[in-house]
Amino acid sequence: MIDLSFYLGFAFSLYAIGIYCLATKRNMIRLILGIEILVNAANLTFITFSAYAVPGFIDPLAHSIVIVSIGLGGSVGAVALTIIVYAYKHYGTLDITELRRLKG
Amino acid sequence: MTALFILPLDVLVLFTVLTPFVGWLALRIKRKFLIGLFAAVGLLLSGAALYNMYADVSAGSPVLSATPSLFSSFFRVDMLSFIMAAVFIGLGLAATVYSIGYMEKDTGLPLYYTLLLAMIAGLVGVAFAGDLFTLYVFWELMSVSSFVLVAFRKETWEPIEAGLKYLVMSAAASATLLFGLGLLYGLTGTLNFEALASSPPTANVWLFIASIFILVGFGVKAAIVPLHTWLPDAHSAAPTPISALLSGIVIETGVYALLRTFFTAFLSIQTQWFGILAVLSILTMTVGNLMALLQTDVKRLLAYSSIAQVGYMLVGLAVGTQAGLSVGLPSALPAGAETALTGAILHIINHALMKGVAFMCAGAIILRLESRNLGDMAGIARKMPITATLFAVSLFALVGMPPLNGFISELTLFTSAVQANVGWLGVAILLNSIISAGYYLRVLRTLIQPSMSEAVSKAKEAPAVILIPVGLMVVLIVLFGIYPQPVLKLAQQAAQELLRIRGS
User: Fold this and answer.
1) What's the rounded mean pLDDT across residues B344-353?
2) Can you tell me whether residue B26 is helix, strand or coil?
3) Cβ within 8 Å, pair B160-A90
4) How far apart are CA B161 and CA A45, in angstroms?
5) Which domain holds residue B340?
6) Which residue of B lies nearest to A11 if distances are taken between CA atoms?
7) Is residue B455 a part of any domain in this protein?
8) Fold of domain A4-99
9) How many domains in chain B?
């Protein structure tokens, strides 16, 4: 059985990749992909812990949580893409740095 | 018939699903106001169902969801959940009635009211949730519908840009929250509030990491300062009723969720968090107030002042965290913990009222002038006397003037800080109230200025459908200020239940 720390290390690095993607990418679609990576990192922790909490037993609770969470991630992605379509219509570009008319 | 979730929530979900059909019919017979009326009826019925639960909840034992419900989701309604749900449904009802007047000229109204009801359903679900994952699911329902509502007027660039910014920050925060929940689940094997509270995980580095992720996740929605940048944009770009809801209740949901998690899962590391939360609260209120001083757009000003008000609530949370593992042992509770939580809960109720009225009055003026610039509103009090009076009452309450409700909750928070021997937090509240008077009174002075522009002199009083909900809320502001005992008692009971959760 592979050690828990490998899975956790992988989940944390996925999380770091997602944050890196959000911080550096300029394309709006890539930002959404970054968010999806973050959600997947979270899902992976649930799945990992479901198998490791009690030896020889896989907790079905975490799996149902992950299935619901995948659905939620999909709906967020759909709403995000809809807003991006309108942003594209207004600005004619997918570059997020062009959308800096609002001051923080 | 088995229930879907729990009755007040079922009613909201049912009306959410029915609104598009009713909206389509109402548009066919060209009676737009019927859609808003239908949504308002849904909220009223849900409020009635909630009121029916009052007797059980006030008896002191939390109401759990019926076991054979369709989705088998777990709900636990105690006094705190009840208060939050009542605030959500109440302000939601006011905003819905207000929308009938405010959104008259917009298209896509069936969609608007559907999303409004979905957002309220999400908020009520967050308040009722009995475990952290149920909370997360309803949290997402609330978030997703609020993204679309912020970007609702898609014809102009500002709502789209603000909506996108809000979405990216909020969705990243939700994922962070879920990651933290995953770690917490790994540490404890459960996400149920009662189970987490009765055997809190031992303090170790993983619990700290989980709590940082969860704090960031909730903190973005609660607009704690380094994470607040989306708020002024989103709150000023949204249609005004939505701004009132976002500022009045959505950001409070973040504070509510922090209260819940800190007083269940993080009991064993609470005392270590005190310093960080205290610094964050001072930072939040100071930055919010100072930035509000600089604004010329009235909605941005109110949005920044919401950040400052969240800072006051965080003081309550910070002082409350000194309780630590003595939660559940009434004799060992440190002084001020109960008062602090009472103050935080009271301020959540009061801020929903005050900020709701302030945004709605500003919205009524914007509706007549079609400008959000404070300078353009000079002298409007002479043309819209009722709106200006209501606006003035809410601004005085936000400053913390004595006979109004804002004073009561700020005083409670101040008292708790002094009782707990952290008077500097109380002084921070006082100083910030003084700074905040600077911009609230500036708004007031602009409203009553004698000179007026041509646009102002043509303005007329807001329609009754806008004034009635706002007027009723102002009555509550004054009532809770003059006679605070009933609501204070409810908040106190909620605080006690939060501090007793380990025993139940």
Assistant:
1) 93
2) helix
3) yes
4) 33
5) 7-499
6) B179
7) yes
8) Helix Hairpins (1.10.287)
9) 1
